[in-house]
């Protein structure tokens, strides 16, 4: 059975939505980080699916590679901040961060 | 080779930054990294300003470069703005970190590389390069905020900014993916041509526009995407706050300018009632309201400047909303505004650094009480900065606002009303800007109150002299700089 590009676009948008929802609803640093990664991977899927329309060039695939590399750097930095956060709060629940503005 | 020379402001920062990293790693004695980094930023500033005056639109560059990075007058102008702001922040950091015993060479290098990312972002002619520049800039800023890793406030600020920043980057990317799907291009020129040629699916283009705009609005802290700004600005060290509030904002705005005049410059998309100008006008009005009203109740000076930054993002967006009617004037006004805002905010935060010393830091407005009487000369730059941000002549801020609101008035219709709202809310902003000036000069500290004691350090004084000169010069002879901004803006429309 052959799936069209539209099906991939719908799938990617759904995954993106799940990631965005997870980011907004959950209050755990690591889960929020994973939600963002989910969103980025949904974007990658979208880029690669769209690249099937424009096969003569590889703009979408190149973009996906760049996103993968940058997402890795972002995750490394995010985990470092998560460790610093955990050392202070002994937890990664982001609700505990409420010292500012008080 | 010519391309390397044409991009000298960027190449200098990148190569210099990598070299300083090596020198610092292998040197036997402690290296004065702050001095090296300021020198490098100064050199980059001189080269960018020189290129802007001598040969702003170099020709004969290979297409492999210009397809990805724009080499034009607009690019040199934004280079000047970004290096000025970064230089002020570096000099302020040189004093601040030593005084508070936080000195670490990494922070200067992060600052340098973040500036490089900002310059790439401001020049990006391709969405892939734009994304790389955006992330190079942002990741370094997250690191700079988290540098005080035992400080709960800093880590809280870093956490909030990092999580929301990556979320916004993902939103922007989703928009970029939709634009790619609609047009098959990743470069601004290719997407523009596809849209103009009518080959693009309008629904995808509109969605792409909304998502990319939301991503940018987050980076420039425009309402309703501003929630992170006050906390992130307050939790960061003062020089880092200065860097974030100017460099990140100006670079994101410059990139927004390129994308929206390029990709979405189509007359149909730019239609004043059915196109994006209405959308941007709504963001502008909301930002001016949230920023100016939010700042009124604040005591912490960094939070006041955060809300002031939201309000100024609103003023700049007024210029964006007028781009459809008077493209050249509005672009020049926006570019001029960057310079004025960089001078004003940079100067305010440098002054805040100079006002404090270890254990006696200036944090709230109350800490400044009477400082102008004890140290009249030292307090003067802060007063100049506040007057400029408020927009009182003869300072930079007056002409910056004048040019912007003039452009909006020329656009007419709802945009003229927007300009009127901007003027009215600028009057409101007088309450919180002048409160600081009054605290400095007119009030007496309460008996036995703890007041901030100014530090003695050369770096920050240099930053204050530099910033004051810029703000006053932009206010005394605005014509010279406006001509440069006009010339720089024209590059976007040829």
Beta-strand level of the residues of chain B, as a percent range?
Answer: under 5%
In percent, how helical is the residue content of chain A? over 70%
Our Rg estimate of chain B from Cα atoms comes to: 21 Å
For the residues shown, what is the average pLDDT of chain A? 92
The tally of helices of chain B reads 21
Main sheet of chain B, how many strands, which sense, barrel? none
Order of helices and strands of chain B: HHHHHHHHHHHHHHHHHHHHH
- Stretches of chain A where pLDDT is under 50 for at least 5 consecutive residues are none
On the 0 to 100 scale, the average pLDDT of chain B is 93
Distance between the termini of chain A: 59 Å
Helix content of chain B: over 70%
User: What sequence of helices (H) and strands (E) makes up the elements of chain A?
Assistant: HHH
Query: What is the number of strand segments of chain B?
Result: 0
The oligomeric state is: heterodimer
Task: Give the overall form of chain A.
Answer: elongated
Number of domains of chain B: 1
Low-confidence stretches of chain B: none
Structural class estimated from helices and strands of chain A? mainly alpha
Given the structure, what is the number of helices of chain A?
3
The proportion of strand residues of chain A reads under 5%
Shape of chain B: globular
Explain what this protein looks like in three dimensions.
- The complex is a heterodimer of chains A (102) and B (494).
- Chain A has 102 residues and is mostly helical.
- Chain A has helices at residues 5-25, 29-51, 59-89.
- Chain A has a domain at 28-92.
- Chain A contains 3 helices and no strands.
- The N and C termini of chain A lie far apart (59 Å).
- Chain B has 494 residues and is mostly helical.
- Helices cover 75% and strands 0% of the residues of chain B.
- Chain B is built from 21 helices and no strands.
- Chain B has helices at residues 2-6, 8-26, 33-54, 63-66, 73-99, 105-123, 127-145, 152-183, 188-196, 202-219, 229-235, 238-262, 276-296, 301-321, 327-355, 371-374, 376-390, 396-411, 414-441, 458-476, 478-490.
- Chain B is globular.
- The interface between A and B is large, with 45 and 41 residues.
């Amino acid at each position: 059975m052959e799936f069209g590009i539209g099906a991939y676009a719908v799938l990617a948008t759904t995954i993106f939505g799940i990631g965005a929802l997870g980011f907004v609803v959950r209050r755990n640093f690591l889960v929020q980080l994973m939600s963002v990664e989910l969103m980025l991977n949904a974007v990658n899927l979208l880029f690669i699916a769209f690249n099937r329309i424009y096969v003569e060039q590889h703009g979408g695939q190149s973009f996906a590679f760049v996103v993968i590399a940058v997402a890795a750097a972002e995750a490394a930095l995010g985990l470092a901040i998560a460790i610093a956060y955990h050392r202070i709060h002994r937890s990664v629940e982001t609700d505990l961060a409420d010292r500012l503005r008080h | 080779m010519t391309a390397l020379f044409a991009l000298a402001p960027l190449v200098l920062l990148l190569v210099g930054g990598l070299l300083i990293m090596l020198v610092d790693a292998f040197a036997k004695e402690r290296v004065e990294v702050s001095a090296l980094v300021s020198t490098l930023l100064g050199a980059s500033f001189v080269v960018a300003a020189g290129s802007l005056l001598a040969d702003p639109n170099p020709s004969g560059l290979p297409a492999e470069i210009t397809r990805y990075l724009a080499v034009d007058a607009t690019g040199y102008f934004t280079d000047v703005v970004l290096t000025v702001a970064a230089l002020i922040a570096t000099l302020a950091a040189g004093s601040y970190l030593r005084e508070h015993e936080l000195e670490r060479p990494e922070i200067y290098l992060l600052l340098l590389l973040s500036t490089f990312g900002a310059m790439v972002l401001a020049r990006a002619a391709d969405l892939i390069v734009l994304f790389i520049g955006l992330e190079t800039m942002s990741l370094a800023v997250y690191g700079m905020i988290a540098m005080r890793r035992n400080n709960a406030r800093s880590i809280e600020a870093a956490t909030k900014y990092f999580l929301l920043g990556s979320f916004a980057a993902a939103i922007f990317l989703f928009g970029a993916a939709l634009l790619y799907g609609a047009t098959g291009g990743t470069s601004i020129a290719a997407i523009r041509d596809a849209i103009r040629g009518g080959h693009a699916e309008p629904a995808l283009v509109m969605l792409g526009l909304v998502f990319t705009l939301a991503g940018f609005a987050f980076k420039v802290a425009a309402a309703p995407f501003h929630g992170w700004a006050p906390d992130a600005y307050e939790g960061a060290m003062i020089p880092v706050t200065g860097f974030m509030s100017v460099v990140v904002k100006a670079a994101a705005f410059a990139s927004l300018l390129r994308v929206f005049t390029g990709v979405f410059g189509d007359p149909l998309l730019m239609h004043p009632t059915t196109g994006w100008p209405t959308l941007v006008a709504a963001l502008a009005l909301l930002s001016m309201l949230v920023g100016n009203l939010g700042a009124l109740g604040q005591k912490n000076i960094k939070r006041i400047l955060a809300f002031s930054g939201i309000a100024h993002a609103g003023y700049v967006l007024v210029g964006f909303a007028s781009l459809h009617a008077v493209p050249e004037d509005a672009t020049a006004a926006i570019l001029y505004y960057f310079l004025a805002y960089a001078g004003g905010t940079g100067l305010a935060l440098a002054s805040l650094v100079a006002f404090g010393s270890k254990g006696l830091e200036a944090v709230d407005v109350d800490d400044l009480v009477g400082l102008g009487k004890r140290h009249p000369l030292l307090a003067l730059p802060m007063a100049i900065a506040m007057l400029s941000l408020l927009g009182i002549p003869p300072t930079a801020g007056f002409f910056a606002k004048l040019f912007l609101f003039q452009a909006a008035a020329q656009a007419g219709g709802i945009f003229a009303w927007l300009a009127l709202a901007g003027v009215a809310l600028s009057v409101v902003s007088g309450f919180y800007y002048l409160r600081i000036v009054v605290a400095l000069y007119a009030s007496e500290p309460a008996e036995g109150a703890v007041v901030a004691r100014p530090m003695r350090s050369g770096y920050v004084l240099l930053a204050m002299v530099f910033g004051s000169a810029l703000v006053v010069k932009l206010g005394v002879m605005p014509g010279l700089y406006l001509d440069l901004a006009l010339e720089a803006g024209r590059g976007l429309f040829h």
